[in-house]
Amino acid sequence: MQLAWLLLEGIGIGIAVAAPVGPVGLLCIQRTLQDGATVGLATGIGAATADGLFGLVAAFGLASIADYLVAHSTSLKIVGGVVLLVLAWRAWQRTRPRIEPDVPVHVRVLGGYSTGLAITLSNPMTIMGFVGIFAALGLEDLAAGTGNVTALVIGVLAGSAMWWLGLCGGTILLKPRIGPQSLSWTNRLAAVLLAVFGVVALVSGAM
Q: Where are the membrane-spanning stretches (predicted)?
């Protein structure tokens, strides 16, 4: 019963962590519109994987890993900012609502997953968010056993994945109403917002 409850709490935590609007959410929407639900969902699953890893570190109380990531947060933010600026430039260049034939779909899926994973991992302060949530819910003691940690982390992964699946599904429902011209402007808007996130990350890292 305790494991089932921890699983449900993990799902709630995963949704809560994934839900705030950020660069991965923008990429998920933009790629779903441009390349299809598979590529968009892969981007979200990459972020869900990172959330699961952060949740694992927080649940096991691996202070050394958390401290290392936080200590190197400046470098990670700068790398993440550069990646976001590159993605912003690529999104700005994409104005045609089709997948280029010279790039296989599986390559786009892998690219979506890796960028979602990398962008989320570049924000190690997420670990501290997990620690705070676990402490607020009194889960730091419950997650002492391996089985408890497994249930909690699986819940976090499932909850995060559920959020990204819902976001892609909602985007797919709106896609028929978006014409080529609107898709072009959507790409440009996503590019501008990604660039803003990238600049913020670079400034935050530099400071």
A: 6-29, 41-63, 69-89, 110-137, 149-174, 186-206
Between helix 37-60 and helix 63-71 the angle, nearest 10°, is 120
> Cα(first)–Cα(last) distance of the chain, in Å?
47
32 Cα distance to chain centroid: 14
**Three-state DSSP string of 107-163:** HHHHHHHHHHHHHHHCCCHHHHHHHHHHHHCCHHHHCCCHHHHHHHHHHHHHHHHHH
**What is the per-residue burial (b if ≥16 Cβ within 10 Å, else e) of 12-21?**
ebbbebbeee
Higher pLDDT, 161 or 185: 161
107, 110, 116, 120 alpha-carbon torsion, rounded to 10° = -130
Q: So what's the pLDDT on residue 113?
A: 92
pLDDT at position 95 over 60: no
- The DSSP 8-state label assigned to residue 101 in this structure reads T
Q: Is the dihedral of CA 83, 49, 137, 67 positive or negative?
A: negative
Residue ranges of domains in the chain = 2-73+95-179
List, for residues 35-58, the tens digit of each pLDDT value. 888 888 999 899 889 888 888 877
